[in-house]
Amino acid sequence: MSTLVYDTGATKRPVNLTLNTDLVARAREEGLNLSALAEDAIAAEMARRHRAKWDALVAQDCKAHEEYLKEHGSLGDILRANAEADGE
Question: Where are the alpha helices (DSSP H) in 1-88?
Fold first, then answer.
């Protein structure tokens, strides 16, 4: 599963963000690129959410598989039961 959740080659456009003035001042003193940091943080959060959705789907499928096995048994169980019935 890829963690890339957006087109990194898409054009950029200006947006308005509201940030704490002290944080912005300190970040600029450090020479930080706020646009790049914001983009990285948003991408990381989107990847985290994408992964959480994927994990939930896998957990749901595993639960359904476990319920199926409880009700019907596994292929191995069926083969063993048939082999015992045939006297093997």
Answer: 21-29, 34-72, 75-85
